[in-house]
Records
---
Amino acid sequence: MFRRRIGRLAGRSVVVVGLAMFVLITVAPLAWLAISSLMEQQALTAKPPDFSSSSFTLANYTGVFAAAAQLGQGFANSFLVASFTTAIAIAVGAPAAYALARLSIPGANAILVMILGTQMLPGIVIAIPLFIVMSHLGLVDTRLALVIVYLSFNLPIVIWILRGFFLAIPPGIERAAAVDGATTAQIFRLIVLPISLSPLFATGVFAFIESWNEFFFALILTRQSARTAPLMISQFAGQYQTVFGQMMAAAALAIAPVVALAILFRNMIMKGFAEGMVKG
Amino acid sequence: MGTLEQRRRRAGYAALAPALLVLVLILAYPIVDSMLLSLQDLRAAGGTFEGRFIGFSNYGALLADRTFRAALWATAYFTAIEVVAVVLLALGVALLLVHPFGRFGIFRIVLLLPWAIAPVANAVLWKWILHANYGILNTLLTELGLIERNVIWLGTPGLALHTVLAVDIWKSVPFIAILLLAGLSKVPPVLYRAARLDGANAWQQFLHITLPQLRPTIAVAVILQTLWSLRIFDLIFVMTKGGPADGTVLLNFLAYRTTFNFLDLGYGAAIANVIFAVSLVLALGYIWLLRPGLQKAGG
C-alpha cells in the first residue's frame, strides 16, 4: 500500500515536471521575442542584457515603420492575398466537398486520393512552371498571382476538411427535404450551409493563417509592390540584422494577428485539422 | 428529368467542376510541365526563357554533381533524425497532456503557438536567440557556467545543420503532438479499466494498450513529418542561406538556389522532381494508411 502511494507520487511529479518543461521550452523563445521587442538596443547588447525598467520602450515599434516605410504595404498585401484566397477556396471548395461527401459521384475516391496526394507535394515542383507561366502573363509581382498560387495548397485542404464535416451531418434532414421536392442545390444552400457555419469559419481561419504565413511562393513571385509581410520581415532582418529590438518588433507585428486567431479558434482548428488528417 | 439519383449526380458534377478545373490548372499542369522542363537545358536570360531539349542529361548530371549528392545525404540525415526526434518527443508531450493534470486549456494554446507563428518570424527569432555575440542562448550558457567561449551556432560547419535541425524540431513537436493527442483521445477508456482490474501497471498499460491502439496515428505522424522535413526551406533561407560552406544546403533549398539564383531552370526542375518522386512514394503510403476511412466514405 505504502509503496504504491510512493509510486503514484513519483508518477505525478514526473507529469508535473514534464508539463513544466514543455511549457517552458515552447514559451520561453516566444517570450524573449516579446521582451526584446520592447527593449533598447543598448540594453540588449549589454553583457549581460540590462533588464532595469529604464531599458523598456515602445520605440522599436515606431522605429520599424520609419526604417521600413513599406512594411505597412506588406501587411496590407498579406491581408488582401490571404482574405481573397480564403474566400475563393471556401466558395469553390465547399460545393466540391459536399459533392464528394454526398452526391455519389463515380470515382469520388479516386478524386479524393488525388486531392490528398497533391496536398503532400513539395511546392518547388509547381513553383518553377508557375513562375514561367506568371512571367509570360506579366503577373509576376502582383497580388493576383499569389492568390492563384495559394489556392494550390488551400483549395485541397479546404475540400478535405469540409468533406469530413459534411459526412458527419446526419443524412435524415437532407432526405426529408428531398422528399419535399427541394433540389440538390436548394438543400445545399438552405439546409447544409446554414448548419455548417462554424466548420466553414474554422476552415477559413485555417486557410487564412496558412496564407498569411506563406513565404516560399511569395519569395519567388514578388519583387517590390506585391511583397507580403513575411517577405518584408525576412528582408528587414537581412538588411538591419544588428538592430535586434526592431527586428523582433517587426516579427511580433507579423505574428500577432494569426496568433490571436489561433488562440480564439483553437478548439475548432485542433479538432478539424488533427482529426481530418488522421481519420481520412 | 431522370431519377433522383441521376439528378443528384448531375448537381454533383456541377458542384465539383470549378474546383477540379482550378486544381488541374494550378497543380496538374505544373506537375506535368515540371517533368518536361527537367528534360531541357532551360536558362532565364533577360526576362526570356531559352529552352533546348536534352533528354535525361539533367538527371545524368545530378548523379555526378557533388553538391547535389551532399545535399541528398544531408537531407536524408536531417529527415531521419527529425522524424525520430519529433515523433518521440511529441508522443511524450501527448501522453503528458492526456493526464488529468495536462487537460487545462492553457496547454492547448501552448501547443498551437509554434504552428501559428509564421516560419519566417520563427527563423528571425531563432537567429537572434542564437546570435554569436549578443544571443540570449550564449549569454544563458555562459552565466550557467556551461560554456567558456561563445558558440558560433550558425557559422560552424556541421554544427549549423544540427542547430537548424533543433529549431525545426522545436517547431514541429507541438503539431505532431496535436495529431497524436487526437489519436489518444480515441482509445476506448474501457480498455484501461479492464487492464487495471487485471492488475496492469502504468507501463504495462502503455505497452499493451496505448501503443497498439496508437499505431495507425503514429504511422500517419511519421509520414507527414517526413514530408514536411523534406520540404524545409524558410528556416534555412533566413538563418544560414545554405552556409557555412554549403553545410546547410538541403535538397529543397538547392532546387530553389539552382533555379532562381543560378537561373538554371531545367536543372532546378530535375532536382525538384527528385523531391517530388520521394514525396509521391510517401504520399501513396499515407493514402494507403487512410484507406479504411476512404472506403467508408465510398461514393
Note: Chain B touches chain A through 108 residues (CB under 8 Å).
---
Amino acid sequence: MNLNITKDKNNNMTYRIIQKRNIFLTISGILIAISITALFTWGLNFGVDFTGGSFLEAEYVNYQPSITEIQNVLQDTEIKGLTVQPTTDNTFILRFKEVSEDTHQEVLTKLSSLTSGQEEATFKELRFDFVGPSIGQELKSKSFNASIIVLIMIILYISLAFKRVSRPIASWKYGVAAIIALTHDVLITLGAFAAMGHFYNIEINTPFIAAILTVLGYSVSDTIIVFDRIRETLPKSNDDFENTVNNSINQTISRSINTSFSAMLALLAIMFFGGSTIKDFALALLIGIFIGTYSSIFVASPVLVIWNNRMHKAAKKS
Amino acid sequence: MKKISKLSFKAKTRWILGLIILFALSVALLAGGNYYNQFSRFLASKTNNVIVLPVVKELPFNLGLDLQGGSQLVYEADVTNIPEADRAGAMESARDVIERRVNTFGVSEPIVQVNKGGNGEYRIIAELAGVKDVKEAIKLIGETPILEFKEQNNEISAAEIQAADAGGAEINLDANSLWKNTELTGKYLKRVVMEFAPDGTPEVSLEFNAEGAQMFEDITARNIGSPVAIFLDGYPISVPTVNEKITGGKAVISGQFNIDEAKLLVKRLNSGALPVPISLVSQKTVEASLGTKSINNSLQAGLLGLLLVSIFMIIMYRLPGVLSVISLFIYGLTMIAIFKAIPVAIALPLIFVMIALIFYTFNEIKIFDSSLALLFAVIGILIFFYALKPVTLSLSGIAGLILSIGMAVDANILIFARTKEELKQGKSVSQSVADGFKRAWPSIRDGNISSLITCLILMFFGTSSVQGFGTTLFIGISVSLFSAIVVTRILSVLVLGEWLEKRKWLLGVKKIKAE
C-alpha cells in the first residue's frame, strides 16, 4: 500500500484518496446494501412515542422478582402485549398497549404486591410514559415533515453557498454530491439502528429523530468545509481537477478527523455516564457523525471527480 | 509612527482582554454562585473573618420535568358538539378550569396550555413539575362535573314524578327518563356564590351570562307551576318548582344542605363548568429520584467530555491547544449560566458585551461581509428566545450541551490548522495567527450555518424534548462561535508572538530543515 502516500513539495504526506476512490466507494456501497437489506427485512423498531402504548420503568429495592413472577402477577389485569425487560440496578422496563389510568394504577398495585412478605423490600415507579395512538401517528408525520424541511433548507443553502463556483463543475453539482453523501450517512445510520433494534431491542423514539436531523446538519457542514477548500484551491491550482481535489481533501483531512474525534469524545462520555434514555440517542449521533466524517472525505469528493471525468469523456466522444 | 500604532494596538488588545476577563468572571459567578459562596465562607472561617468576600445570589437551574420529576399530561378535547367558531373560546375556558383545579392541588408553577393539532384536534397539555401524587392529579383534572338544567319530560305523568320523588333514592335511577335536557348548561354560568337565605340557611346563587339569562327566562316561562331540575354529573341536586318567569339571569338553589356542602357545591360549580369533555391521551411521568440520578449522570458525563476534549486539544495543538481549552472553559461557564434563571437586568448587559466583542473582532480582522449580517441575525434570534422565556434544561438539552462541547472546538481546530499551514509557508508566528483567523472564517461560517439551520427546525418541531435539544445546540453553536472568534483570538494575539519563533514545537510544527 506504499502507493497510497506520496510527499508534496513541502515535505507533507499526501494520501491518495481520490486515486483509490473505488476502494472507498465499494466499502460504502456494501454498507448501504447491508443497511437497505436490514431496513427491509427487520424494519425500524419504533418505541411507544411512535406506536402508542405504555412504557413503565419500575425499581425494586432489596428484592428482585423474576420476569415470570412479574408476568404472572399481571396476568389477570386488562393489559395486552406485555413485555418485561430487566435493566441494571433491579429495575425493569415493562411495555404494554395503552391503558386507562385505572388499569395503570391496578398494574402498580399488583407490581407492588410482589414486595409483600419480603423484608425491607420496596417498589417504586420511576417512569411512566403513556402515548395514545393518535399522538404517535401525529409524531410520525411531524418527524417526516421536519426531515423534509431540513433537507429542502440544506439543498437551498448549499446551492446559495456555492453560487459563485462554476469551473470546471457547476455549483449545483456540489449540492448534489453533498446530498448523496448525506443520504449515504442517513441510510447507514438507519440501517445500523434497524440491526440493533432487531438484535438488542434498541428502540426509536423522538430523540432519535433529533439525532438523525443533527447528523444531517453535521454531515453537510463537514462536506461543505471540504468543498470550500476545493473552491478555494481550484483557481490557484495548475494541477488537473483530480489532483486538486485530492490536495484539498488532504489539507482538510486533519481538521475533519480532529473535529469529529472531539465530538465523538463528548458523545462517548454520554455513553459511559448517561442514563438509558440518553445512551441510545448518543449512540445514534456517534454512528452518524462517524459515517458523516467518512463520507465527507471518501464519498462526497470522489463523486464530484467521477462526475467531472464522465463529462469529459462524453465531451471527447462527441 | 509605526511603533506608536503598534503600541496602541497592544493597549487596545489588553482592554479587550480585560473585558473578556470581566465577562468570564461574571458568568463564572452566575454559573457557580454556590461554589463561590462556599469558598468565601471557608475563607472567612479560616482567616477568622479577616477576609470576608461578598456573598452572591445562588441561582437555580430551570429544570425540565424529566430532571426534577413531574408529570406531563396531554388531554384531547371532544369538540364535536361545539360549533367551529366557538371552539377556540371553549378551549380557553377549559384551560382556565383545569388551571384552577391544578392550582388547588398545590403544584408549583403549573403550565397548562391549549394546543391545536395538525388535523384540527384540540389538546390541553398540563405540565406539573414536582407533583407527588400523579394519580390524584389525574383524577382531579379528569373530573368533569357537568351542570345541566332539565325540564319535565311531558310523556311521563306528573303523578309518576311525584311517586318517584317520594321514593327518594330511586329518583337517581330513573332521573334520566323523567327529565329532558334544555339548552341551558353550566357553560352559560357566569358566577356561582354562596349566600344565606333570610332564615339563615345557606343557598347557592347562580348567575348566568346574557345568553344563559335569556334561556333561563324562556325555560321558566314555559314551566310555570312545574318543577325544573338542576343536574350535576347526571344527578339531580335540586328540583325547585317555578313560581314565575325569572328575568335577569339569576337563580338560587336552596336545599337542605349545610354550609360545608354549599361551599363544596359552589367550588364544584365554579370549577366544574368545563365546557368540553376531555380524555387523557398521553402521560409522561418521571419520578423525582430518577431525575436527580439523571442530573448527576449528566454532570459526570459533561465533566468527562470536557476533560477528554481538553486533553485531546492540548496533545494535538500544544500551546494553542491550551488557549483553546481556556476559551472552552469560558464557553462552558457561559452555557451553564444561560441555563440558570438569570435576571434580565444582568443577562442583557452580558449579551451586549458579547455582541460588542464580536463586532470589535470582525472589524479588527476585516471580515465584514454579508455573512456578518447573518451572524447578527443568529444572535438576535438568540436574544429573542432568551428574553421570551428562560431556557429549560432537559435531559435531551444536556445531550445537546455535551455534544456542543465537542463541536465548540471545531472553530478552534479550523483556525489552528490554518495557522499551521501559514507557518509552514515560512510566515512569522504573529502573521500566521492573523492570517489563520482570517482564512478560516469562511469555512467556520459555512460549516456552522447548516448546523444552525437544522437546530432552528428542531426548535420549531413541537415535541418538547426535541425542542430542548435543538435550542441547546443552537445556543451552544452560537456561543462557541463567540468563544473561538473572540476569546481564542485575543489569547492567541497576546500569547503567540515572537518568543515562539525559536520554540515552534510549542505550536506543533516541526522545524523546517534548511537544505
Note: Chain B has 15 helices and eleven strands.
